[in-house]
Amino acid sequence: MHYLVITTGSCGNCYIFSTGQDTIIIDDGVTYKKITEKMAEHEIDISTVRALFLTHLHPDHSKGVGVLQRKLGIPVFISSISREKNESIMIRQKIEIDDVLTYDFGESIEVPGFSVIPFSTSHDSDGSAGYAFRSEGVDYFLMTDTGLIPEAAWAFAEKARVKFIESNYDEEMLSSGPYPEFLKRRISGEYGHLSNYDAIDFAKKTSRHGDSLYFVHLSANNNSPQIVREMARKEIPSGIFCKVCERGELFEGFQDGEEVC
Length: 261
Ligand SMILES: [Zn+2]
Ligand SMILES: [Zn+2]
Description:
- Helices cover 30% and strands 26% of the residues.
- It is an alpha/beta fold.
- It has 10 helices and 14 strands.
- The chain has one domain (2-252): Metallo-beta-lactamase, Chain A, CATH 3.60.15.
- The two termini are 20 Å apart.
- Strands 6-5-4-3-2-1-14 form a 7-stranded mixed β-sheet.
- Mean pLDDT is 93; it is low at 255-261.
- The radius of gyration is 17 Å and the shape is globular.
- One zinc ion binds next to helix 2.
- One zinc ion is lined by residues 10, 13, 58, 60-61, 145, 217.
């Protein structure tokens, strides 16, 4: 399995998972040009893309969807709540609404090469989702943009051997930083984002020897990869592969748990 994080954070999010034969994309907050360039650079054939799954409709996760839909003609999956509550956003973003497929949380979605189960997250975008999925006998987990850890996420993360988890902000940097008070409250609130502390604690409690952890969606203003790396090094037991994702990196295969941050 190849994992390609094209970009992650408030500038845009796009995560690609490919078996070589079949590929899924989670979120599309980048241009079509960027997706095609990066995939070509890492030798993932664009014709193998089977579906796009959206976590939610904030522009950093969805601004490229309309173009991708028209270029590739692939199914786009979103929660039924998100589809119902965000029609005006979808129109504004030129998403072909009639071609969007909806699901209920907990339902299993089968696309070639992947079996995907969405779960509800806690964010200020109605119907936001995280995803647990299985491919080639391995379980994966991806959760970003959530102010709280949803109940369902625990069992999915425990089952998954490879996890992508939001580690958005350092509590100290956010509280002493330049953001206005209302924005600080939004970010740290129950419909905001996960702190480094919560992300690493969750990762630690749901992981075991040989697992791979990728920390994503770091805030550019209220966090630094260095801080997350140091916290993870302290908290995550050895034998668990751990990586803080910055933009445009390719991660290949099933990590063996030797490298820690
Ligand atoms: Zn986001
Ligand atoms: Zn968001």
